[in-house]
Amino acid sequence: MQRYKNHGIAFQYPEDWMLEEENNEGDTTITVTDGETSFWSLHLMRERPQVEEVIEEIETAFKGEYDEVDVERSIKQLARREAEAREISFVCLELVNTAFVRVFRTGRFTVMILCQATDHELEDARSNFEAIADSLDVDLDGDILIS
What are the pLDDT tens digits along the chain (147 aa)? Predict the structure, then answer.
């Protein structure tokens, strides 16, 4: 596994995945991809929008983009926090795709994780997504965790 550590967060991701980081108007997006169509993306929103607002925007975007969308709502534990979670299934180019969304707030930012895979990649991708999410730590300052 490779390790990413910057912006007060850290996580591990598969050796053969590629990482890309973008900064836009104070927000940061870190995306790791398998080289195919699966990806795991973490968005740090420094203005700290409300979790419900972010979730609503995501659901609206998927429903506006795709004709067939199924949304399953839940709460998940992530980085020692409770996160609003969505599993969104949709059809794109005759393929069934699944997106997993997790959103929570810290004292420094709102964190949104979006990962996605087609159904034929989902079994392998899901285990990678879970491993990355399980390794996630937030609010790091150097090597010291901020409570």
Answer: 999 999 999 999 999 999 999 999 889 999 999 888 899 999 999 999 999 999 999 999 999 999 889 999 999 999 989 999 999 999 887 889 999 999 999 988 999 999 999 988 988 899 999 999 999 999 765 433 333
Q: How many CB atoms lie within 10 A of CB 58?
A: 19
- 125 HSE (CA, 13 A, CB side): 23
Range of the domain at 130: 2-145
Which pTM value belongs to this model? 0.89
Written as six digits, the tokens of 59 are 């659901």
**Domain count within the chain:** 1
Residue 107, domain CATH: 3.40.1000.10
Pairwise CA distance, residues 1 & 13, whole Å? 5
